[in-house]
Structures are given as C-alpha cells and as structure tokens.
Amino acid sequence: MRTLSVVFDEDVCLRVILRDEQTATIKALISSLPFSSKALTWGDEVYFQAPFRVVLESDAREAMAVGDVAYWPGGSAIAIFFGKTPASLDEEPRAYGPCNIVGKVSLGLGSLRKVRSGFRVQASLE
Predict the structure, then answer these.
(1) Which of 1, 5, 66, 77 minimizes the number of CB atoms within 10 Å of its CB?
(2) Do residues 78 and 100 make contact, with C-beta atoms less than 8 angstroms apart?
(3) Yes or no: is domain 3-125 CATH 3.40.50.300?
(4) What three-state secondary structure class fits 14?
C-alpha cells in the first residue's frame, strides 16, 4: 500500500492511500512525484494540475464519494472531493466529467475547507 502526501501552503496536509491496482494513472502519478502545483476549488472539490497525461480507464466515473481522489483527463488534474460540487445531483460529490480513481484520503479531509485557489501544492510519496 502506497501513501501520497499532499501539502497545501505547508498548513494543510493530507494523506491519500493509493489504490492497489497498477493502472496507467497510478503508474504515471508515481513516476511524476514529487511535483508542485497550484490549488483551485470548485464547490467542495480541490483540484490541481498534474504533470502527466493519461486517458480514461475502464472504471472511470463522475459519481464520487467524500474523500475520493481522482485524475480528470479532461483537465489533466488531480481532484480531491470533500462534499457537494456544482455538478452534484444531491449531497454527494460529482466530478465535472469522468475521472480515473486514484485513491482515498485517510487523514486531513476536514482541513480541505481551509484551502483556497492559489495555494501552493506539494505532492510526494511518503
């Protein structure tokens, strides 16, 4: 089991348990680490540009659960879902478009409410 560390402006720190399957997205993510980006927000979603590109995988989806972390090929971005988004049909998070599942937040999910667009993001393996 691999763990991703995502730190926003050195104040908000998340731990993400990466999915076990060695998908193209997981392989590309791991090979690109560590990297820096800038945070953006969309409802109760924080996302940031990833330095790689992969296509949609067979299990890609738009419906998410709180704590899901996904890669959106349409914007080459990593998205972290912690509540309702503008695309939500109910209280559950919903992505703008189909996303490849990357993992699940295991620590720090509640602190995402502090993240603002423009925050610096540092992603690395623990």
Answers:
(1) 1
(2) no
(3) no
(4) strand
User: 73 is written with which tokens?
Assistant: 């090929």
Tokens at 80, concatenated: 């972290």
How do residues 20-67 score in pLDDT, each as one tens digit? 888 999 999 999 999 999 999 999 999 999 999 999 999 999 999 999
87-121 per-position pLDDT tens digit: 999 999 999 999 999 999 999 999 999 999 999 99
State CA 75 to chain mean position distance.
Answer: 12
Per-residue CA distances from 50 to 29, 70, 91, 108, 110 (Å): 8, 11, 27, 21, 23
Q: The whole model's pTM is what? A: 0.96
* Structural contact between residues 102 and 25, judged by C-beta atoms closer than 8 angstroms: yes
Structural domain boundaries in the chain = 3-125
